[in-house]
Amino acid sequence: MSEIRVPTLGESVTEATVATWFKKPGDAVAVDEMLCELETDKVTVEVPSPVAGTLSEIVAQEGETVGVDALLAQVSEGEAAPAPAAKDDGKEDAPAAAPAASGGDNVDVMVPTLGESVTEATVSTWFKQVGDTVAQDEMLCELETDKVSVEVPAPAAGTITEILAPEGATVDASAKLAILSSSGGAAAAAAPAASKASASAPAASGAKDVENAPSANKIMAEKGIDPASVQGSGRDGRIMKGDVLKAATAPAPAPAAQAPRAPVSADDASREERVKMTRLRQTIARRLKESQNTAAMLTTYNEVDMTEVMALRNEYKDLFLKKHGVKLGFMSFFTKACIHALKEVPDVNAEIDGTDVVYKNYVHMGIAAGTPTGLVVPVIRDADRMSFAEIEKAIAEKGARARDGKLSMAEMQGGSFTISNGGVYGSLMSSPILNPPQSGILGMHKIQDRPMAINGQVVIRPMMYLALSYDHRIVDGKGAVTFLVRVKEALEDPRRLLMDL
């Protein structure tokens, strides 16, 4: 038996949502065949099968939130004769569950894997009673933990003979919940059709051909909530338990943490449009707020005269393009200047791990990139070992992959410092927010001609404001100011980069 677990999701990404299962229990799977799809705040991750065999159990259902390394499913290695044979012979799919129920043996219903560091759960709801006939994979009960709600499917078709953990009971991660008897094959085989018929009624009432989560149907029935008024977050709009709880408990459309909306006239209300935040936007909002709450974040500012960099770029851009096949931009200059400054002020390139400070003798540079679905930060590894041309090629390649949504999780992990360029959108000044666990982020802004006093004369120079946000728990004000001054000096006199001054 091979376990299918949540892969590494990326730097500071600790959870994902199960968006779609491409297979169901009993299906044959090949090596590297896609089993399911996970959604994070940055990218969509497909989970392949590490072995060939049969998908024996799905632990994390669609719509559930799971942590890194959480158990998603189990695959039995070897041939998967029962399910495929039924399809090849032209028989109906429903009897495919019969082999699991044909032995007349008792089948234990166990607590599924609850997730990393979760050791117990509470039985919140039983959807079936003793004596009820169930189909394989039909939902039996729902467990609640301090992180997520877990629906427990039937491991086989049969009849519930005993419920060992009633509603309200607290069970550990290895507890037995109930016992199924797989005898009574005729009744068990008929269960799938009845299950589908009963489950289709709530879905039909919402004018959607989608089966909602059993726990969601139960709460909507108890509270008299119209399914059509609930926005589903599952696949194809499937309504999950959390969606119903939000609809039932929210006293107002605005989040509880916000001040209540001011009264609006009927005319204004008719011209408003209310759109549910995407899961990506909700996660971005949560993580940005967590960053502000965790780090002692402070921002220091300076300005840089871009005259020398612009002159150097204009002089060599054609030759650079001809030789290296990539355009010479400003980002390689800023990347080199930051690497130069990080060597002198290593605190800005470090991070806090508990009570330790981790100093990094390398620079994995994160370059923030805007995409149609949100901001992502691909990482250029070992940027301190790269030439101008190598940096420009890496930035161009990763920027294109980010816009196409093709970045892998590995390409967004392990950054030690970040550069964000709000100037491409016309920003003149901003205070960037840290990308945890990093301790520094440089904000670039719009280049603007301004009158400057140079050697007692007023001249027009292309100026840019720079902003360094840093974690004051590890970086002192002196170090932050020194870092920004070194960046300014390197850009105003690029020869300093060659001389390592």
Automatic annotation (TrEMBL):
Pathway: Amino-acid degradation; L-lysine degradation via saccharopine pathway; glutaryl-CoA from L-lysine: step 6/6. Pfam families: 2-oxoacid_dh, Biotin_lipoyl, E3_binding. Residues 79-107, 249-273 are annotated as: Disordered. Residues 211-248 form the Peripheral subunit-binding (PSBD) domain. GO terms for biological process: L-lysine catabolic process to acetyl-CoA via saccharopine; tricarboxylic acid cycle. It comes from the Bacteria. It is an enzyme of class 2 (transferase). GO terms for molecular function: dihydrolipoyllysine-residue succinyltransferase activity. Keywords: Acyltransferase, Lipoyl, Transferase, Tricarboxylic acid cycle. It catalyses: N(6)-[(R)-dihydrolipoyl]-L-lysyl-[protein] + succinyl-CoA = N(6)-[(R)-S(8)-succinyldihydrolipoyl]-L-lysyl-[protein] + CoA. SUPFAM superfamilies: CoA-dependent acyltransferases, Peripheral subunit-binding domain of 2-oxo acid dehydrogenase complex, Single hybrid motif. The keyword Ribonucleoprotein does not apply. Its EC number is 2.3.1.61. Residues 95-105, 249-266 have a biased composition (Low complexity). Its cofactor is (R)-lipoate. Residues 1-76, 106-181 form the Lipoyl-binding domain. The keyword Transmembrane does not apply. GO terms for cellular component: cytosol; oxoglutarate dehydrogenase complex. Belongs to the 2-oxoacid dehydrogenase family. E2 component of the 2-oxoglutarate dehydrogenase (OGDH) complex which catalyzes the second step in the conversion of 2-oxoglutarate to succinyl-CoA and CO(2). PANTHER family: DIHYDROLIPOYLLYSINE-RESIDUE SUCCINYLTRANSFERASE COMPONENT OF 2-OXOGLUTARATE DEHYDROGENASE COMPLEX, MITOCHONDRIAL (PTHR43416:SF5), DIHYDROLIPOYLLYSINE-RESIDUE SUCCINYLTRANSFERASE COMPONENT OF 2-OXOGLUTARATE DEHYDROGENASE COMPLEX, MITOCHONDRIAL-RELATED (PTHR43416). Forms a 24-polypeptide structural core with octahedral symmetry. Part of the 2-oxoglutarate dehydrogenase (OGDH) complex composed of E1 (2-oxoglutarate dehydrogenase), E2 (dihydrolipoamide succinyltransferase) and E3 (dihydrolipoamide dehydrogenase); the complex contains multiple copies of the three enzymatic components (E1, E2 and E3). This is Dihydrolipoyllysine-residue succinyltransferase component of 2-oxoglutarate dehydrogenase complex.
